[in-house]
Amino acid sequence: MADLQGIADAVIAGQLETVTELAQAAVDEGVAPEEIIDQGLIAGMNVVGVKFKANEFYVPEVLIAARAMHGGMDIVKPLLADASASSKGKVVIGTVKGDLHDIGKNLVAMMLEGGGYEVVDLAVDVPPEKFIEAVKTEGVDVIALSALLTTTMPGMKDTIDAVAAAGLTGKVKVIIGGAPVTQNYADEIGADGYAPDAASAVDLVAELL
Ligand code: B1M
């Protein structure tokens, strides 16, 4: 039987090799990639987050856990991307200016790809003008913004303002997410939607398009 708890435990312990081995074994057993992500990789990272908050983990442990998690993601990602052949729409995603957290953003990107969307990933520390440029050059339907710091959340409003200033309101949807982000905040800044997690982000994009 697939050892999803083992994957979570190995993420917490930062054991890259164990994570990749167990993730591969789960894939070989036919476990759905979404299940491996939710119950293994994300479950482990959630514990890491709690430990970081409680000062039981410091930055090096968090980075080692994140690296182990990425090892698992590398195993399941091709399966997600293969889940659908034709693109249902194009999404540009990035973590807002000043913010370097990319684990959640990467998961959202992967799940969107798995859901059949084309994803343009602008990575981290992305200023509003870069999103606007991508909308203009890539013809994207949705901008997905991630923020993990309360201090960088205003970058989401700045991006929505830049969309308006570029005359793109209504032509492109802006959706937001990340641990400190809420539906209330989305309403307050005029975002088209908020998703609490990666799976909901896929549902939200489907709803909006
Ligand atoms: Co940072 N960090 N961090 N950190 N870090 C937090 C966010 C923090 C809550 C920890 C804490 O103090 N309790 C805190 C923020 C406090 C606040 O603002 N209120 C914090 C801080 C303070 C900092 C630094 C300032 C620390 C310092 O240097 N003093 C610094 C800032 C650097 C910067 O960005 N400029 C910093 C640095 C780091 C590391 C580099 C060590 C590392 C990031 C590594 C990386 O991303 N490559 C890191 C990490 C890992 C965390 C925690 C522990 C875990 C974040 C994570 O990856 N979670 C985090 C504590 C926590 O969240 N409990 C913390 C797992 C991930 C799967 O969840 O990202 O929430 P999450 O994504 C979810 C959903 O939110 C949603 O879907 C994802 C999957 O379900 N989602 C979206 C995310 N984006 C979405 C976009 C969408 C939709 C849904 O678009 C529509």
**How large is the share of residues in beta strands?**
5-15%
Helix content: 55-70%
Kindly report the name of the CATH homologous superfamily of the largest domain: Cobalamin-binding domain
What's the level 1 CATH class of the largest domain? Answer: Alpha Beta
Q: What is the tally of helical segments?
A: 9
What small-molecule ligands were found?
A: CO-5-methoxybenzimidazolylcobamide
Give me a quick take on this structure.
By secondary structure, the chain is an alpha/beta fold. It is built from nine helices and five strands.
Structure description:
Strand 1, helix 5 (about 105-115) and strand 2 (about 120) form a beta-alpha-beta unit. The mean pLDDT is about 90. By secondary structure, the chain is of the alpha/beta class. It has helices at about 5-15, 15-30, 35-55, 60-80, 105-115, 130-140, 155-165, 185-190, 200-209; strands spanning about 90-95, 120, 140-145, 175, 195. A 5-stranded parallel beta sheet has the order 2-1-3-4-5, sandwiched between helices. The chain binds CO-5-methoxybenzimidazolylcobamide. The site of CO-5-methoxybenzimidazolylcobamide has 37 residues, from helix 3, helix 4, helix 5, strand 3 and strand 4.
Descriptive keywords:
11% strand, binds CO-5-methoxybenzimidazolylcobamide, alpha/beta, Methyltransferase, Methionine Synthase (B12-binding Domains), Chain A, domain 1, 5 strands, Rossmann fold, 209 residues
Topology:
Layout: H1 4-13, H2 16-28, H3 33-53, H4 59-82, E1 90-95, H5 103-114, E2 118-121, H6 128-138, E3 142-146, H7 154-165, E4 173-177, H8 183-189, E5 193-194, H9 198-208
Helix pairs in contact: 1-2, 1-3, 1-4, 2-4, 3-4, 4-5, 5-9, 6-7
CO-5-methoxybenzimidazolylcobamide binds at residues 42, 45, 48-49, 52-53, 59, 62-63, 66, 98-105, 107-108, 144-146, 148-151, 175-180, 195, 197-198, 201.
